[in-house]
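HUMAN:
Just now I want nothing more than another pair of eyes on a protein record. I would be glad if you read both lines and explained how they fit together. I have put the entry right below:
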Amino acid sequence: MTQKQIKLALQEVAINALSNSIKEQDITKGAFSEEALRYLTMSEISKKKIWGTFPNKKTRNGKKEDRILAFEKLYKRDLNNKFYFPDIVSYHETNKNHNLVVELKIKKDIKDKDIKKCKEYLDKKSGEINFNLAMVLFSNVIDKSFEKDMNKKIKAAAKKGTSINNSTLLLGFIEWEFDEKKNKHLGDPKTFWM
């Protein structure tokens, strides 16, 4: 697979996970949790088989697959001895291609620190795993201030020429709109490369 095909597959993972999140939020109302988003996202990642499958399988000789797909792996940064627990990690014991890190959030608004953390994961100079791709998914009811903030970020990314070809960080979120006829909020998953 080409790098562009892999990135398109990641976008599809984000759209599908967020679409399923919208359905689950409609069913569970206020009880939707980050744990549920973690499961929905891991299921979509596993279906693609690019980043491994979950649960991890054993080969015929009893050893684990080389590619590991895990929830909340301890990740140590070399700089300042920082420790993180990314929500989902895909990595290879020896091959550094196609390593993926995912942060998931259920909040009212996006925080720059969440995006900054993913940018740190992508920094090749530090950390125990070199990640090639990172994804931040926000699954929540979005208010107008979030939409304005996102529009600014999208415009800034467009000005810089950020595209699928020259970016390694994918941001996914739900754009909510109130449907007066149905008397409820309808969600539309969105993604863009930062």
Observations:
- Strands lie at 67-71, 75-76, 83-84, 88-92, 100-105, 133-138, 169-179, 184-193.
- DSSP finds four helices and eight strands in the chain.
- The helical segments are 3-28, 34-48, 112-122, 144-160.
